[in-house]
Design brief:
mainly alpha, three-stranded mixed β-sheet, 13 helices
Length: about 260
């Protein structure tokens, strides 16, 4: 072994505060890299997973998965685990109906990007993987989304990747595919691309100078259209845009051309 089991636990005990901050999205550091340097220095085939403790705190699973000949090593590692407040350690995932891990969407995106960065993956690939990890929880809200907001997400550039990831996520956990099938049907039923409600030219036509405010105003109109109880047409979007521009001017906002 490159490091001893005792050294691993000493390093882990000194990192628990940083881990708690990371799980609360109050810190940003390379957890996979740290685990690779420390735990996987004992044996690179060891797998690990963090999750919420029961009934509170945090858990760490250290497992050989299918490398059963490593089970004695895992038992040896866990037998040496120190008593740390708020932490529990396990050789396999616990049998539960469901594990809840608040913030796992942003944490998984951060971890995935860090792993891909270590492998010098292209920036475009890193961006797509991080997006899929960060937004995968959107599927739960998909049936209740406003029609325009749902359609905007379904028409996203990488929705096919989102859909494939969601299917794998379901099959790897509860096995239920109702949301996947709903999303697949909704995506297949999409008609022609609708007309663009408003553009930058529309904003400039109202007398504003080019600048960041143009994009902000367009985003406000599109956000309002997404949340509208009935679909917003171009005429309604232009009326809203004029109101927003006038409001911005009254608040001392963007100067006219």
């Amino acid at each position: 072994m490159e490091i001893s089991i005792e050294s691993w636990w000493k390093a882990f005990a000194g990192k628990t505060s940083d881990l708690s901050l990371l799980f609360q999205n109050k810190a940003d550091w390379d957890l996979p890299g740290w685990m690779h340097t420390h735990l996987n220095a004992i044996d690179r085939r060891l797998l690990w997973e963090f999750g919420p403790g029961i009934p509170s705190g945090h858990r760490l699973v250290i497992t050989p998965e299918t490398d059963h000949h490593l089970r004695p090593l895992v038992d040896q590692i866990l037998a040496a685990a120190p008593k740390l407040p708020g932490w529990s350690f396990h050789p396999w995932r616990l049998a539960e109906d469901r594990i809840r891990f608040d913030g796992h969407d942003t944490l998984s995106a951060t971890m995935a990007d860090a792993i891909l960065a270590r492998f010098h993956a292209p920036l475009e690939l890193r961006a797509v993987v991080a997006e899929v990890c960060r937004e995968h929880i959107h599927f739960a809200a998909l049936p209740g989304m406003r029609p325009a907001k749902r359609e905007r997400w379904l028409r996203g550039k990488h929705f096919a990747v989102h859909l494939a990831f969601h299917r794998a996520d379901c099959l790897g956990s509860h096995g239920k595919l109702e949301l996947y099938e709903f999303a697949a049907r909704a995506h297949k039923a999409l008609g022609p691309v609708p007309e663009v409600l408003v553009t930058g030219s529309d904003v400039l036509a109202l007398g504003l100078q080019p600048g960041p405010m143009v994009g902000k105003l367009l985003a406000q109109v599109h956000a309002a259209a997404d949340e509208a109880p009935v679909p917003m047409d171009r005429a309604g979007a232009l009326r809203l845009l004029r109101e927003l521009v006038e409001g911005a001017r009254q608040d001392g906002g963007p100067p006219a051309r």
